[in-house]
Amino acid sequence: MTAVDTIVAIATAPGPGGVGIVRLSGPAAQRIGEAIAGKPLAPRMATHARFLDAGGETIDDGIALRFRAPASFTGEDVVELQAHGSPVVLRALVARCIGLGARQATAGEFSQRAFLNGKLDLAQAEAVADLIAATDLRAARAARRSLEGDFSRRVEALMEAVLAIRVHVEAAIDFADESLDTLGGAALRERLRQASDQLALLRRAAERGRRLRDGLHVVLVGPPNAGKSSLLNALAGSERAIVTDIAGTTRDLLQETLRIDGVELTLVDTAGLRDAGDAIEAEGIRRARAELARADLALALVDARDPAAGRSALDGDVHAAGQCLWLHNKADLLDGRPALPADALYVSARTGEGLEALHARLLALAGAGTDGDAGAFSARRRHLDALATAAAHLSRAGDELAAERLELAAEALGQAHAALGEIGGKL
């Protein structure tokens, strides 16, 4: 894409005593930058200059950097004006650039131009926004890896593998009179199996990246009086939910956003799941079940003194969530502690017992476990949807290959390839 105009924006705003950057991109960037600096700007050379307004007065003094197309972030001519001082100075520089023919960039327009000029794919362009929005060092590192192409390279490698398999299948169509096994069918099926395995690994990694970016959506469920509201209050550190001994006190969803060691969790308290006593409680229970279907994790609370009854009451509902962690609440009232399975913890919302272990488990499920953020990359819900679509098509391709319906197998492989291409915007 060849830009017809030049855009300008404050790329980095300064903190107290810090450095701010005004960035220009487009065909007039060099002309405008040199007019403000009052001197020629050599490519990739830091030039100290006084930044001048229309009357020749000094706005500020700083460093000007020029990048010649296509060797720049956007693939266009780019000039950066690094100033020190206040946001007032940066706004004055932007106004001067606009007076010389630039226009104010819209949100994300620099990244958009980088994408259109082939400097970034769509996943990398989205990672720029993720990096800017990151509120935790782990999420920032994950976004940086996506920006550097970690995610995109894995997707592209899968696309190449799928395309190679499709080429083999389509070549075999020309020999329809022969058995697929005589045309390398066993090796072909093995390559498809390996591609499917690689895709499964990538889906798990992308889900972890999505959780680092978006946080964990956690729903508290349990029979009435299991202690859901008390646990919400204990995790939030404040009296957010009304707690009584009356069954059915919580009738609507109560949402709280928490941060545990920098990781964001959206925690939703729900109505106790049971056969409802009235229409209002019934609606609360319906909403609770709908929220479970959207959840990354269900925290299923049962009374530690009679866990079997609680599990029996919840078993038909908790499977709607992505994962389930069983919490045996009121553990402080137990005389003994029978061993629990790996998907369960003892807690006490009243005394705080077990909350530290619960925090650690939540961090691990959010993608920030004991191995830190090693290898994590940021991902979005649309990426997960595209990967799931590709996996479904690869599965169908395997079934068609097994039945030697080669045309249908080739079609499924093409659809898998297209689904993967959506991630980077390569349609």
Tell me what the structure shows:
By secondary structure, this protein is an alpha/beta fold. The chain is built from 13 helices and twelve strands. The protein has helices spanning 29-37, 87-99, 109-116, 122-133, 137-147, 150-173, 185-214, 228-236, 279-294, 307-318, 355-365, 381-402, 406-424, and strands spanning 7-12, 19-25, 47-52, 58-67, 78-84, 103-104, 216-221, 254-260, 263-269, 297-303, 323-329, 344-346. It has a six-stranded mixed β-sheet, covered by helices on one side. A six-stranded mixed β-sheet has the order 8-9-7-10-11-12, with helices on both faces.
From the spread of the alpha carbons, the general shape counts as flat
Ranges where pLDDT stays below 50 over 5 or more residues in a row are 240-251
Oligomer: single chain
Please state roughly what percent of the residues sit in beta strands, choosing from under 5%, 5-15%, 15-25%, 25-35%, 35-45% or over 45%: 15-25%
For the report, how would you describe the main beta sheet? 6 strands, mixed
Count of individual beta strands: 12
Tell me the span between the first and last alpha carbons: 17 Å
Radius of gyration: 28 Å
| Largest sheet strand order | 3-4-5-2-1-6
Q: SS-based structural class?
A: alpha/beta
Mean pLDDT: 85
Q: What is the share of helical residues?
A: 40-55%
Number of helices: 13
Compressed to H and E, one letter per element, the order equals EEHEEEHEHHHHHEHEEHEHEEHHH
